[in-house]
Design goal:
By secondary structure, this protein is of the alpha+beta class. The protein is built from ten helices and eleven strands. A hairpin with a 3-residue loop joins strand 3 and strand 4. Helix 6 runs antiparallel to helix 7 and helix 7 runs antiparallel to helix 10.
Length: 310
Protein backbone atom coordinates (compact mmCIF):
# COMPACT_ATOMS: atom_id res chain seq x y z
CA UNK A 1 0.00 0.00 0.00
CA UNK A 2 1.37 3.39 -1.02
CA UNK A 3 1.37 6.00 1.74
CA UNK A 4 1.85 9.75 1.50
CA UNK A 5 3.86 11.85 3.94
CA UNK A 6 1.38 14.36 5.34
CA UNK A 7 3.92 16.38 7.30
CA UNK A 8 5.06 16.66 10.89
CA UNK A 9 2.90 16.44 13.98
CA UNK A 10 2.38 19.72 15.83
CA UNK A 11 1.60 19.12 19.54
CA UNK A 12 -0.54 21.43 21.63
CA UNK A 13 1.30 23.64 24.08
CA UNK A 14 0.98 23.38 27.84
CA UNK A 15 -1.98 25.44 29.06
CA UNK A 16 -4.05 24.73 25.96
CA UNK A 17 -7.36 22.94 26.74
CA UNK A 18 -6.40 20.22 24.22
CA UNK A 19 -2.94 19.65 25.74
CA UNK A 20 -2.58 16.10 27.10
CA UNK A 21 -0.24 14.66 29.70
CA UNK A 22 -0.30 11.84 32.24
CA UNK A 23 -2.98 12.20 34.95
CA UNK A 24 -1.57 13.23 38.31
CA UNK A 25 -4.07 11.23 40.35
CA UNK A 26 -6.37 8.23 40.12
CA UNK A 27 -9.56 10.31 40.08
CA UNK A 28 -13.09 9.22 39.21
CA UNK A 29 -12.69 10.09 35.54
CA UNK A 30 -9.62 7.89 35.19
CA UNK A 31 -11.32 5.00 37.00
CA UNK A 32 -14.45 5.24 34.84
CA UNK A 33 -12.36 5.38 31.70
CA UNK A 34 -10.33 2.35 32.77
CA UNK A 35 -13.55 0.44 33.39
CA UNK A 36 -14.81 1.36 29.92
CA UNK A 37 -11.55 0.02 28.46
CA UNK A 38 -12.04 -3.28 30.27
CA UNK A 39 -8.86 -2.78 32.30
CA UNK A 40 -8.07 -5.35 34.98
CA UNK A 41 -5.92 -2.80 36.82
CA UNK A 42 -4.96 0.86 36.47
CA UNK A 43 -1.58 1.80 37.92
CA UNK A 44 1.10 4.45 37.65
CA UNK A 45 4.22 3.01 36.02
CA UNK A 46 7.62 4.74 36.40
CA UNK A 47 9.29 5.81 33.16
CA UNK A 48 12.92 4.65 33.08
CA UNK A 49 14.18 4.90 29.49
CA UNK A 50 16.76 2.31 28.50
CA UNK A 51 19.67 3.06 26.20
CA UNK A 52 18.57 3.19 22.58
CA UNK A 53 14.82 3.32 23.35
CA UNK A 54 12.86 5.64 21.07
CA UNK A 55 9.68 7.58 21.73
CA UNK A 56 6.78 6.09 19.77
CA UNK A 57 8.28 2.59 19.55
CA UNK A 58 7.10 1.14 22.87
CA UNK A 59 6.46 -2.40 21.59
CA UNK A 60 9.92 -2.64 20.06
CA UNK A 61 11.57 -1.09 23.13
CA UNK A 62 9.89 -3.60 25.45
CA UNK A 63 10.66 -6.54 23.14
CA UNK A 64 14.35 -5.60 23.22
CA UNK A 65 14.26 -5.42 27.04
CA UNK A 66 12.74 -8.89 27.20
CA UNK A 67 15.35 -10.26 24.81
CA UNK A 68 18.27 -8.69 26.71
CA UNK A 69 17.17 -9.01 30.32
CA UNK A 70 14.27 -11.47 30.43
CA UNK A 71 10.86 -10.82 31.90
CA UNK A 72 7.82 -10.22 29.76
CA UNK A 73 5.80 -7.62 27.91
CA UNK A 74 2.57 -6.29 29.43
CA UNK A 75 0.16 -4.68 26.97
CA UNK A 76 -2.59 -2.20 27.77
CA UNK A 77 -3.28 1.47 27.24
CA UNK A 78 -1.42 4.55 28.39
CA UNK A 79 -3.99 7.07 29.62
CA UNK A 80 -3.47 10.74 28.81
CA UNK A 81 -5.61 13.57 30.14
CA UNK A 82 -6.56 17.00 28.81
CA UNK A 83 -9.05 19.46 30.26
CA UNK A 84 -11.68 18.10 27.87
CA UNK A 85 -11.16 14.35 27.47
CA UNK A 86 -9.11 11.29 28.33
CA UNK A 87 -7.29 9.28 25.67
CA UNK A 88 -6.24 5.62 25.86
CA UNK A 89 -3.28 4.85 23.61
CA UNK A 90 -2.23 1.25 22.98
CA UNK A 91 1.04 0.78 24.87
CA UNK A 92 3.50 -1.83 26.14
CA UNK A 93 5.48 -1.79 29.38
CA UNK A 94 8.10 -4.18 30.71
CA UNK A 95 7.83 -6.57 33.65
CA UNK A 96 11.43 -7.49 34.68
CA UNK A 97 12.20 -10.95 36.10
CA UNK A 98 12.23 -9.45 39.61
CA UNK A 99 8.64 -8.22 39.17
CA UNK A 100 7.00 -4.81 39.05
CA UNK A 101 6.43 -2.76 35.90
CA UNK A 102 8.75 -0.31 34.15
CA UNK A 103 8.14 1.81 31.09
CA UNK A 104 11.44 1.81 29.14
CA UNK A 105 10.08 4.20 26.49
CA UNK A 106 10.85 7.92 26.87
CA UNK A 107 7.75 10.14 26.73
CA UNK A 108 7.45 13.10 24.41
CA UNK A 109 7.10 15.57 27.27
CA UNK A 110 9.47 13.96 29.73
CA UNK A 111 6.85 12.59 32.15
CA UNK A 112 8.47 10.48 34.88
CA UNK A 113 5.49 8.14 35.17
CA UNK A 114 2.51 7.14 33.06
CA UNK A 115 -1.00 6.02 33.96
CA UNK A 116 -1.34 2.51 32.55
CA UNK A 117 -4.50 0.41 32.14
CA UNK A 118 -3.64 -3.28 31.89
CA UNK A 119 -5.71 -5.05 29.22
CA UNK A 120 -6.46 -8.67 30.19
CA UNK A 121 -8.09 -9.39 26.83
CA UNK A 122 -4.82 -9.29 24.89
CA UNK A 123 -3.92 -12.80 23.75
CA UNK A 124 -0.61 -14.23 22.61
CA UNK A 125 -1.86 -13.85 19.03
CA UNK A 126 -2.17 -10.07 19.43
CA UNK A 127 -0.04 -8.21 16.88
CA UNK A 128 1.37 -5.15 18.68
CA UNK A 129 2.75 -3.78 15.41
CA UNK A 130 -0.64 -3.36 13.73
CA UNK A 131 -2.29 0.10 14.02
CA UNK A 132 -4.47 0.42 17.11
CA UNK A 133 -6.87 3.41 17.16
CA UNK A 134 -7.00 5.40 20.36
CA UNK A 135 -10.02 5.32 22.64
CA UNK A 136 -11.29 8.50 24.28
CA UNK A 137 -13.83 9.68 26.87
CA UNK A 138 -15.44 13.09 27.28
CA UNK A 139 -14.90 14.54 30.79
CA UNK A 140 -16.69 17.89 30.55
CA UNK A 141 -20.17 18.76 31.81
CA UNK A 142 -20.95 15.36 33.28
CA UNK A 143 -24.47 14.89 34.61
CA UNK A 144 -24.90 14.39 38.35
CA UNK A 145 -26.20 10.82 39.00
CA UNK A 146 -28.72 12.31 41.43
CA UNK A 147 -30.06 14.49 38.63
CA UNK A 148 -30.44 11.46 36.37
CA UNK A 149 -32.28 9.53 39.09
CA UNK A 150 -34.59 12.51 39.66
CA UNK A 151 -35.34 12.78 35.93
CA UNK A 152 -36.21 9.08 35.70
CA UNK A 153 -38.38 9.25 38.82
CA UNK A 154 -40.36 12.09 37.26
CA UNK A 155 -41.31 10.11 34.17
CA UNK A 156 -44.85 8.82 33.79
CA UNK A 157 -45.20 5.03 33.32
CA UNK A 158 -45.89 5.48 29.61
CA UNK A 159 -42.95 7.84 29.15
CA UNK A 160 -40.67 5.55 31.15
CA UNK A 161 -41.58 2.64 28.86
CA UNK A 162 -40.92 4.81 25.81
CA UNK A 163 -37.50 5.95 27.07
CA UNK A 164 -36.58 2.38 27.94
CA UNK A 165 -37.33 1.27 24.38
CA UNK A 166 -35.17 4.11 23.04
CA UNK A 167 -32.34 3.11 25.38
CA UNK A 168 -32.61 -0.52 24.27
CA UNK A 169 -32.36 0.51 20.62
CA UNK A 170 -29.20 2.46 21.42
CA UNK A 171 -27.79 -0.55 23.35
CA UNK A 172 -27.59 1.57 26.50
CA UNK A 173 -28.91 1.13 30.01
CA UNK A 174 -31.65 3.59 30.97
CA UNK A 175 -29.42 5.66 33.30
CA UNK A 176 -26.78 6.21 30.61
CA UNK A 177 -29.40 7.03 28.00
CA UNK A 178 -31.15 9.59 30.20
CA UNK A 179 -27.79 11.05 31.29
CA UNK A 180 -27.05 11.83 27.65
CA UNK A 181 -30.29 13.80 27.42
CA UNK A 182 -30.20 15.62 30.75
CA UNK A 183 -28.06 18.71 31.15
CA UNK A 184 -25.91 18.19 28.09
CA UNK A 185 -24.39 21.49 27.01
CA UNK A 186 -23.21 22.53 23.53
CA UNK A 187 -19.64 22.18 24.81
CA UNK A 188 -20.16 18.55 25.85
CA UNK A 189 -21.77 17.77 22.50
CA UNK A 190 -18.90 19.44 20.63
CA UNK A 191 -16.31 17.42 22.58
CA UNK A 192 -18.18 14.22 21.67
CA UNK A 193 -18.08 15.29 18.00
CA UNK A 194 -14.37 16.07 18.29
CA UNK A 195 -13.65 12.60 19.69
CA UNK A 196 -15.64 10.90 16.92
CA UNK A 197 -14.07 13.02 14.15
CA UNK A 198 -10.57 12.44 15.54
CA UNK A 199 -11.13 8.70 15.52
CA UNK A 200 -12.35 8.82 11.91
CA UNK A 201 -9.22 10.78 10.96
CA UNK A 202 -6.86 8.51 12.89
CA UNK A 203 -8.17 5.44 11.06
CA UNK A 204 -6.74 7.03 7.90
CA UNK A 205 -3.34 7.64 9.47
CA UNK A 206 -0.20 5.65 10.14
CA UNK A 207 1.48 7.51 12.98
CA UNK A 208 5.22 7.65 13.44
CA UNK A 209 7.05 9.48 16.25
CA UNK A 210 7.55 12.61 14.12
CA UNK A 211 5.57 12.24 10.89
CA UNK A 212 2.01 11.55 9.78
CA UNK A 213 1.48 9.16 6.87
CA UNK A 214 -1.77 8.36 5.06
CA UNK A 215 -2.79 6.00 2.27
CA UNK A 216 -5.67 8.34 1.31
CA UNK A 217 -4.49 11.99 1.36
CA UNK A 218 -7.80 13.38 0.14
CA UNK A 219 -9.84 11.63 2.81
CA UNK A 220 -7.28 12.58 5.45
CA UNK A 221 -7.45 16.23 4.44
CA UNK A 222 -11.25 16.25 4.65
CA UNK A 223 -11.22 14.46 8.01
CA UNK A 224 -8.58 16.81 9.39
CA UNK A 225 -10.61 19.81 8.27
CA UNK A 226 -13.65 18.50 10.18
CA UNK A 227 -11.52 17.98 13.30
CA UNK A 228 -10.18 21.53 13.08
CA UNK A 229 -13.63 23.06 12.54
CA UNK A 230 -14.95 21.27 15.64
CA UNK A 231 -11.85 22.28 17.60
CA UNK A 232 -12.45 25.90 16.65
CA UNK A 233 -16.10 25.60 17.77
CA UNK A 234 -14.98 24.20 21.13
CA UNK A 235 -12.57 27.11 21.63
CA UNK A 236 -15.35 29.59 20.87
CA UNK A 237 -17.71 27.85 23.29
CA UNK A 238 -15.06 27.95 26.01
CA UNK A 239 -14.47 31.64 25.40
CA UNK A 240 -18.18 32.52 25.23
CA UNK A 241 -19.12 30.63 28.39
CA UNK A 242 -16.08 31.72 30.43
CA UNK A 243 -15.60 28.06 31.23
CA UNK A 244 -12.74 27.56 33.73
CA UNK A 245 -10.85 25.70 31.03
CA UNK A 246 -10.90 28.81 28.83
CA UNK A 247 -9.05 31.12 31.20
CA UNK A 248 -5.94 31.25 29.08
CA UNK A 249 -8.03 32.36 26.07
CA UNK A 250 -11.12 34.28 27.14
CA UNK A 251 -9.84 35.99 30.28
CA UNK A 252 -6.79 37.30 28.45
CA UNK A 253 -8.96 39.03 25.87
CA UNK A 254 -7.24 37.05 23.11
CA UNK A 255 -9.08 36.84 19.81
CA UNK A 256 -9.64 33.10 19.32
CA UNK A 257 -9.91 33.51 15.56
CA UNK A 258 -6.44 35.01 15.38
CA UNK A 259 -4.85 32.22 17.40
CA UNK A 260 -5.90 29.47 15.00
CA UNK A 261 -3.39 28.65 12.28
CA UNK A 262 -4.33 28.39 8.62
CA UNK A 263 -4.32 24.59 8.51
CA UNK A 264 -5.84 24.43 5.02
CA UNK A 265 -2.83 26.35 3.70
CA UNK A 266 -0.48 24.13 5.71
CA UNK A 267 -2.06 20.88 4.50
CA UNK A 268 -2.10 22.05 0.88
CA UNK A 269 1.59 22.90 1.06
CA UNK A 270 2.45 19.53 2.59
CA UNK A 271 0.45 17.67 -0.06
CA UNK A 272 1.76 19.65 -3.05
CA UNK A 273 3.84 17.21 -5.17
CA UNK A 274 5.86 20.10 -6.66
CA UNK A 275 7.71 20.67 -3.38
CA UNK A 276 10.10 18.42 -1.50
CA UNK A 277 10.75 21.01 1.21
CA UNK A 278 8.20 22.81 3.40
CA UNK A 279 9.44 25.04 6.22
CA UNK A 280 7.00 25.55 9.09
CA UNK A 281 7.03 28.17 11.83
CA UNK A 282 5.95 26.59 15.14
CA UNK A 283 5.15 29.86 16.87
CA UNK A 284 2.80 30.52 19.77
CA UNK A 285 -0.08 31.23 17.41
CA UNK A 286 0.26 27.83 15.79
CA UNK A 287 2.08 26.38 12.76
CA UNK A 288 2.44 28.53 9.64
CA UNK A 289 4.05 27.79 6.30
CA UNK A 290 7.16 29.95 5.95
CA UNK A 291 8.24 28.82 2.51
CA UNK A 292 8.10 25.91 0.08
CA UNK A 293 10.63 24.80 -2.48
CA UNK A 294 13.05 22.12 -3.60
CA UNK A 295 16.36 21.26 -2.07
CA UNK A 296 18.20 20.86 -5.36
CA UNK A 297 17.17 23.92 -7.36
CA UNK A 298 17.29 26.66 -4.75
CA UNK A 299 13.78 27.91 -5.51
CA UNK A 300 11.39 28.79 -2.73
CA UNK A 301 8.08 30.55 -2.33
CA UNK A 302 8.39 32.93 0.59
CA UNK A 303 5.39 33.04 2.91
CA UNK A 304 6.85 35.34 5.54
CA UNK A 305 9.19 37.72 3.64
CA UNK A 306 12.77 36.55 4.13
CA UNK A 307 12.25 34.38 7.22
CA UNK A 308 13.69 30.92 6.58
CA UNK A 309 13.57 28.81 9.69
CA UNK A 310 13.06 28.68 13.42
Amino acid sequence: MVVKDMGGRVPYEKGDPFFQTAPVAMDGDVKRFGDSLGASQIIFVPVKPVAGAQTGFCHRNVAECVERFGGRSVIGRAIWKSELFLTGERHSVWEPPAGGLIDPTPTELGETSICFAIDPSVSEEFDPWSPQPNEAMNIVDRVDPAGVAEAIAGLSPARLKYEQRRADRASLDLDTYVARKVGRTPLAGAVDEFIAASRERDLLVLQTPTRVLSHDPGAFRDAQRRVLLIEDRIRRLLAASHHPDSTSHAASGMDIRRTRPDFDHLIQALLDPKFDMVAIDLGESGPKVLYTGNLDDGTASDEQNTRRSR
